[in-house]
Amino acid sequence: MSTSSLITDGHDDRPSNIDATAKFAGEGRTVASSGLKLFMWILAAAAALGIVGIIVRFIDDGGREEWGYYAATLAFMLTMFGGAPMIAIAPTIAKANWARPAARIGSLASIATAITALLLIPLMFKLPALTEFSDVLGDDVRRRSIWFDSPIYAPHFWNPLILATLAVVGLAMAYVMAIPDFAAIRDHGTGWKQRWARNLARGFHGRPQQWEWLMMRIGITGALYFAMLLYVNFTFSIDLAVSLVPGWKDAIFPFYHTLGSFQAGLSFTILGIWAARRWGGVSKYVGHEQMWSLGKLLLATTLLWFYFFYSSFIVFWYGRSQADSSTIELLVSGPYVYLFAAVFLFAFIAPWWVMIWNKVRDSVWGPPIAAVLVLFGLFMDRVRIYVASWSATPDDLELATTGILEKMPPTQWPDVFDVFIMAGLPALGLLGILLATRLVPVISLWEIQQSRLITKPVRYLRTRVLLVGKPD
Predict the structure, then answer these.
(1) Calpha distance 225→233 (Å, rounded)
(2) S-S: 246 plus which of 21, 394, 403, 422, CB 3.0-4.6 Å?
């Protein structure tokens, strides 16, 4: 037995699984907010504007630099939506009881990852071949990349395929984790949701063998998702950022990119929990303990963000070669210096300052504030990195014979269609998640019941806590 720090009032007045099933399965309702449909229409309108922005970009057929904000937006969507399912994986592996109500919100982000994979396909038509700089540096000269002897269009094939694989694994994990809830809707629901749930439950009735099958597949898909997330961040950040800038050599940057995905995924899940409590009618099931625990993880990843950034930056700072100096100027001290200052403030300083206070971190409102700051800072970070990388074109830059930038590109400011893209594409991903909550409950009913079976409120010193049994 072990104790958790969830304070209770001394009575086991927690809502039962019968209450949760009646609320989210029996009535067929997953979200209680009366303004949900209006919000979804707003998201749909924003998504339509984003699609318009993509179409205009293709019709305009401008230079590569015009696609920098599109690449930055996809990178941010991968960062935020791709990292959120880790909340359903890592705490489960660690047998953290507090994470059960939050796991569904994190796993549903895989739907937005699938949308991101589809949106990556148009960008591949604008990604230059590996021989982009051959006209300047000589024939048969390829830009630096991880595809040494591969075809010159290898990144155009493998990046969508790898991201699509991540999406498929994430969707499989989300589906497997929802099977018991589909069975609950099948047995207690009505209408079209009951008919859909009957097909999706696949004969699940809670037999011991079925639970063993379920837990085994959750573990397999979770482990595969974690491995694929690392690989996707590696290839995406190298092919769509590092390899586009002559002279940029950074072995730490992919890990920095991945750490940002963990940080943004935590932030998205925290905001999802807060929204579900505020407008989704789940305040009895998701609350203080989830915010407090996720807040601690958010503080840890915020500190790690600075560690990985410093570990990467210090190599260029002390290297002081021409390539190192030009890389620092392009990404930090040059045309995007003010953007970098905003990134450092919102991705590290501000959330760190908010979360170091115990009373703020140990509250329902503190972690969401830090989460908003982090997401804004990481969005600015993706703009800084990808817009700068896509602006390094042979037409705009003078290249030395060694392939090092000698002249900095000008600052690429967004136009109205870039704004459409930056607002519309994340809205499309969020819309997909909200549509899914019309079928599957926003919280995991079976995990709430499992939590009740292994916990009970007890007195501990001068307070009340939950005693959590961990028989295995």
Answers:
(1) 12
(2) 403
Least confident piece of the model among 19-33, 77-91, 235-249, 365-379: 19-33
Cα separation, 358 vs 448, whole angstroms? 27
Say how far apart CA 73 and CA 79 lie, in whole Å.
Answer: 10
| Whole-number Å distance between alpha carbons of 54 and 121 | 12
Write out the H or E segment, with its range, that includes residue 125.
none
Q: What is the pLDDT of residues 136-172, one digit of tens each?
A: 666 667 778 888 888 989 999 999 999 999 999 999 9
Residues forming a β-bridge with 456:
467
Question: Cα separation of 337 and 324, whole Å?
Answer: 16
pTM: 0.90
Residue in this structure with the two tokens 């950040």, named with its chain if needed: 237
**What are the tokens at 136?**
């300047």
C-alpha–C-alpha distance, residues 332 and 335, integer Å: 8
Please report where in the chains the tokens 């086991």 appear, as a residue: 12
Q: How many other C-beta atoms are found inside a 10 Å radius of the C-beta of residue 299?
A: 19
Q: How far apart are CA 402 and CA 133, in angstroms?
A: 11
Distance CA 282, CA 437 (A): 13
DSSP 8-state symbol, 10: S
Q: Which residues on neighbouring strands pair with residue 3, listed in sequence order?
A: 467
Q: Dump pLDDT digits (tens) for 398-433.
A: 554 556 777 788 899 999 999 999 999 999 999 999
